[in-house]
Amino acid sequence: MADLRDFPDQAYSGVHHGPLQEGEWITLQDSKGRRHSVKLERGKIFHTTKGGIAHDDLIDGPDAVTIRSKGNVEYLALRPLMADYSVSMPRGAAVIYPKDTAQIVTMADIFPGAKVVEAGAGSGALTTALLRAVGIHGQVISFERREDFAEVARKNVTGFFGAEHPAWRLEVGDLVEKLNEQDVDRVVLDMLAPWECVDVVAEALSPGGVFCAYVATTTQLSRVVETLRAHGEFTEPRAWESLVRDWHVEGLAVRPGHRMQGHTAFLVTARRMAHGVQAPRKKRRPAPGAYGDDYAGPRRAEPGTGASAEQPVQTSGDMP
Asked: tRNA (adenine(58)-N(1))-methyltransferase catalytic subunit TRM61 C-terminal domain: from which residue to which, for each copy (predicted)?
């Protein structure tokens, strides 16, 4: 029976087994934990302060080995995991880090066969995770306004999977202007003003579909949450951030590590209600002053009134 673990061309998993091949990326790590991403090419030498490492000494050899530089310093050589690849890939825009990627894939419930819309594509880090999650029978449609960023994303995603992924379509342009999809299962927005896309996204999402936004600042967080509430046909938004802290474990010396992955961004999720169906309103009263004279953002219409009861939603240019 064939070994089903390794069919990269068919499965498009980005995972490979067997001997290391020319053109593959590997990670070299020294005894202090410092990592270097290296693309294997015959005849090339990776130079370190402790001497060079010949690519030919790794090509056609096994994964997960140690190799010594010409200066007799030992390095660990491994094929990178997707998390390793995403933080070391060439960048146009900043990448979404693995701790947030994992939250998006899980909390937005990205599943095999899903139809997912993403904006913007950035450098392609999140795109690789979305494509692996939906598989070859799903669909990821990525929008990126900047053509130079789109080209970086295309190279990184293709480099990870080893070929053009059959489930991926990359569109250069504004999602608000170009999105004409229907029956979308999930929408993930990594952009400066995701609230500007809420109406368009609401038309594309299937009932029960998930809206997910990735925003860096509290001002953006407030605007996207309140816009979802003002729309009326999304469930109450949930907002959170994740913090990751390593631990030092050595005998009886067990303590938090000195470094921590702190704030990177906030995540917001909400479910699309059936078209024309209003979500139940929050019963808990907001804090005093939450919507006082200083608040100038969107507001939900009061019960029994029309849309005119809402304040106009500010554009990104009006954002404080």
From this structure: 85-250
